[in-house]
Amino acid sequence: MSRRKSRFLRKPVEPFAVTAGLSADDLLTRMERVSFQGRNLATARRIWEKMLASDATIFLGTAGALSAGGMRLIIAHLIEHRYVDCLVSTGANLYHDLHETRGRRHFIGSPTLDDAALAAERIDRVYDTLASEDEFCRNDEWIASFVLKLERRPYTTREFLYKLGEHLWNETEHHGILTAAYKAKVPIFCPAIADSSIGMGLSQGRHRDPAAGQIDVIGDIIESANLVIRRPSTASVVLGGGTPKNFINQASVQAEFFSDKVGGHKFALQIVTDVPHFGGASGSSLEEAQSWGKLSIESEKISVQADVTVALPLLVAALESTTKDLLAKRKRPEFDPSGPALVVNGQALPEDHFQES
Amino acid sequence: MSRRKSRFLRKPVEPFAVTAGLSADDLLTRMERVSFQGRNLATARRIWEKMLASDATIFLGTAGALSAGGMRLIIAHLIEHRYVDCLVSTGANLYHDLHETRGRRHFIGSPTLDDAALAAERIDRVYDTLASEDEFCRNDEWIASFVLKLERRPYTTREFLYKLGEHLWNETEHHGILTAAYKAKVPIFCPAIADSSIGMGLSQGRHRDPAAGQIDVIGDIIESANLVIRRPSTASVVLGGGTPKNFINQASVQAEFFSDKVGGHKFALQIVTDVPHFGGASGSSLEEAQSWGKLSIESEKISVQADVTVALPLLVAALESTTKDLLAKRKRPEFDPSGPALVVNGQALPEDHFQES
Amino acid sequence: MSRRKSRFLRKPVEPFAVTAGLSADDLLTRMERVSFQGRNLATARRIWEKMLASDATIFLGTAGALSAGGMRLIIAHLIEHRYVDCLVSTGANLYHDLHETRGRRHFIGSPTLDDAALAAERIDRVYDTLASEDEFCRNDEWIASFVLKLERRPYTTREFLYKLGEHLWNETEHHGILTAAYKAKVPIFCPAIADSSIGMGLSQGRHRDPAAGQIDVIGDIIESANLVIRRPSTASVVLGGGTPKNFINQASVQAEFFSDKVGGHKFALQIVTDVPHFGGASGSSLEEAQSWGKLSIESEKISVQADVTVALPLLVAALESTTKDLLAKRKRPEFDPSGPALVVNGQALPEDHFQES
Amino acid sequence: MSRRKSRFLRKPVEPFAVTAGLSADDLLTRMERVSFQGRNLATARRIWEKMLASDATIFLGTAGALSAGGMRLIIAHLIEHRYVDCLVSTGANLYHDLHETRGRRHFIGSPTLDDAALAAERIDRVYDTLASEDEFCRNDEWIASFVLKLERRPYTTREFLYKLGEHLWNETEHHGILTAAYKAKVPIFCPAIADSSIGMGLSQGRHRDPAAGQIDVIGDIIESANLVIRRPSTASVVLGGGTPKNFINQASVQAEFFSDKVGGHKFALQIVTDVPHFGGASGSSLEEAQSWGKLSIESEKISVQADVTVALPLLVAALESTTKDLLAKRKRPEFDPSGPALVVNGQALPEDHFQES
Questions:
Q1: How do beta strands D335-336 and D343-344 pair?
Q2: A2, A117, A132, C55: which one has the fewest Cβ atoms less than 10 Å from its Cβ?
Q3: 3-state secondary structure (DSSP) of residue A69
Q4: Chain D, 122-181: which have a CB under 8 Å from a chain B CB?
Q5: How far is C89 from C86, CA to CA, in rounded Å?
Q6: pLDDT, block means (10 residues), chain A with 357 residues
Q7: Chain D positions in Cβ-Cβ contact with residue B29 (cut-off 8 Å)
Q8: Is residue A331 among the annotated active site residues?
Q9: Hey, which chains touch B, using 3+ CB pairs under 8 Å?
């Protein structure tokens, strides 16, 4: 060996040292110097801090059974305290949130339960978690009834979900994702709403009145791209992949078609369990996203391969210790998502054409 | 050991014997007696044969980058020869199909290419596969122009995609998924169309005319459930999970709300790479689906954990050898997907209310 | 729905609530009521506590690049404070531990480094972690020199590794896995020692003297089974699967052949990333282990699907808060691993025949 | 877009076209132009052909429950027809092979069987495959009896397994891995023999005679490295990862310490289900192996992410069609593995020191 150390061998791994009373902050701080996914999770915290310190509008994407699985109040917390500015979600996560906000529950089960016995009792299983199908049916009816209160015109999912959160808050005054977003005026997009029980509720609204339940998902595309065009920069926090991951990236790609100033997300972090090597979007690498311009070539980014139910509580608990000032000082956009056009810092975004800022 | 064999030890594993000139049929026949995913793939062939021999309407769900990855002509083949009756797809698979049907190509790359260099040349990477972003932009414009030819009213994705396939066929006369479905009059649903480049094309149509690009995804929910209600039984073939997997199951669940005769899919097979233990829908087990009534308790079902690009060519090549008679004799539904209402065996399905047959 | 709740719907999921200053203990306590792998990790803590409260001898199995990845001082901590009684490890984890105890380091790298450039500088990569190959060569020589100090007779890996830990401590007085095990008199087995750099060091010892470097791995089998026979009960903590997982289970199976009193581990927890459905031992389920008698049918058990570098720091930090009394009071075996026969509570275990207690 | 095509966009993906009567050869030939793991599997065939056309000594590593899972006669076929020159295996694959060669069977079960019921009937489960524990016990005794026939001296696993294959052939005249290797004089190494039922059989031999059951795993290290030193070049075919994968690579690394002429395997292919991002050796990338010198920087290599029970039958069936001439003409080493020293092309390899050729 040459006497001089290689440029590659500069920063040693520091073995994690267990001591009494470690906080979430301590854990992630020590994990910054270990390897593999532990290090990646610790790095995710630092990148999220940088997002908060920047001028980026932060998109949060949520896929997987996060609400059924006990993560909904963390997501509500992220919205309420504006760790994020805009939510893109699967319908299921919003639906299971609504279920609990309405006072119903999910239950602790096991993956080895007898599904025939569950079916006989009309209980639905999500891996190790259970819910009453009858309660789900009543949610659908509740949504259908709400749908009938709306005007007989197309709503983007963003406008529809704002109204839904408003109605839910007025009726329950309970904390959750939809109600937190309503109160914080944080827009929610749900590009695959037709593939969810919220979509089923909408379809049941239309069953009662053929003019009800009109959803304009194409308007969402335009609005989300205009949001990216309007903001100085963007960042992406993806939990679980799925349609939210792609929709957040698509907004960036679509925005570039209409504005030379848009150059991909400036920061990106994802916590996923899918892998890149089968070619699917959920597991695709953040490097690959750079080839498309979804992410800037200079972006700071990290991918964490972990179940969200393990990684997210630790990550957010650690952020909670270190971001008080960052949250207080951050330059966040102020929205009014209550009308047909999304208003950002007092200016309405068109939903029928792309518009350079 | 007792002299009597246990009831558990009845059917021995038969080690796979390599001989010269094995066909796809031989391979899967011999794999029926091995273990693990090899056996599951071989079982999938037998279950698909049973679907074809039954009165079931067969849904095919396609997620993951199957078209970019060289699987589109297999899917077109399944549609053309009516191995399946109804396609539910991600937008990306239809878009990448359209790209090739229009004469453009995807290219063989590598997962270790330099994404900054690719971005500089405007080349988009999907794991080990590449495409020209400029060609993609021209597809988007082509779709936008087509959108402007349509009436200024909402289209379900099913009606829209039929018209798109028709237009594509008339312009190219090339074989692909959209064109095969057009010619075979096989309906296609795309519940997450807003999360795809087809959605982007639609949004660009609207950019040119605010009244264009109206998509009614709630109508798709009603229509797909009415299809399940109308048919004597259903079956599900899922490639890759994603929104198509859930949408096919949702149709079954939604149908049960309006018809006591509906009891879940009678057959189900899925080829997925996701796993059940993180709780996401893509990897969820077929047993779990039974608790929801998505699948009948008596259904025959198999889950294969494999990349579709490995499993599908072998599976379909083997089916091709053994299903000639089954395909000729099967009681398949005849569709007319050309209008606002889907016509099945001469009878229109409502798209604004659920209707028992 | 009947008015009475189903027996399945008794214990609701409690959404994780983020508050300021959460400790590792708080995190896992709140995670007990979420779903999926978060719940499993929280359950693992409770099962480990039960192990400590019981009369079980606790085996720890370590596979994967845990030492290179910054986990070695956690493992040393578990040994020192007798969270565990016996270590079964891959050779690599002991070798990378020795590397750091000798004052060398692993370094923080990235999975996308240029491997040709690394090879040119003689730097070895383990995913995102780096080490100097020249330093590795000098470790091998150091081990070879130590081997030449030993008697020219076969050593079980257990005896050999005790002597290695002793030598390492005497030379360095540094804390690590091997030195902690030496000081705590905790036996270490390394069934696949021939598949590791420790084995390479042994082979280089023999290169210098053909009578040196004799390892008796068959003696390890007998000794480990006799240990299971002798102890009132056993428990298994498996990190990463591999040969340690199977060896710990094999000891239980082998012990049953010679003693009717042995009935499989009473507790088992594993943190693995492999999955059951490909049939390999690393990912095999704990239920499957029950069919073999590796685990008792009544055992309490949990499998966590997570990277050890994410899960272990959190798990052990939480245990550290709640187990002080349990550790002080536990009925742990006292070993003398310094000679050809392992001595347990003053009684030597044969290494050349199985012996009922 | 510039008129000239990018250098990246040269070779288009060719969609797989289904036609009647496709052979394994046809399947893989068409899969060369698709994407993801399908392409990788097709590439694996071409790389194996190049191995056969070269002067490389081909190591085959087998881990995972391949023999129990119906793959043993494929492995025997690879040995008999000298697709490979040297086997490195887990003990389990050799043990389950011996079980069937002795006329016992594994049985088709299911992953959802009741393990308590299986345990009650003394049936052992390997995911979806079953075997009689009583038959396993009799195998162990049979091995123990064989062990007592051997000289009371240490045997490398290579010598021991040759004798075991010889004994098995003489007693059964049945085809299998051990018997094929015996007849073809192909050496087998089993570095983790202590972590298997073959090890248990050895330990039971020693139980009957304390001088029996001596295994010299350190000799295996020296012998395997000397084999690499002696041969002009080497290649690696890895199924499933595990200790065989590392042992084959270790032989290369160890050989380089003693010979400047050794430069890593010239070809490498692996079929694995583990992933790189958790840092474990089973899933480690072939690029990473280049940093260590396990693989030559110029090596041709491919990693296939697939279950061996899906990929191997197809791969070997296709090779069978195209390699007749290659097998007939190849420059393969001729071994005599019957004595304490492995003889290669008439020259004995030392097992007590490393020796440059």
A1: antiparallel
A2: A2
A3: coil
A4: 122-123, 126-132, 134-135
A5: 10
A6: 74 97 98 98 98 98 98 98 98 98 98 96 97 97 98 98 98 98 98 98 97 98 97 97 97 92 95 97 96 96 98 98 96 96 96 85
A7: none
A8: no
A9: A, C, D
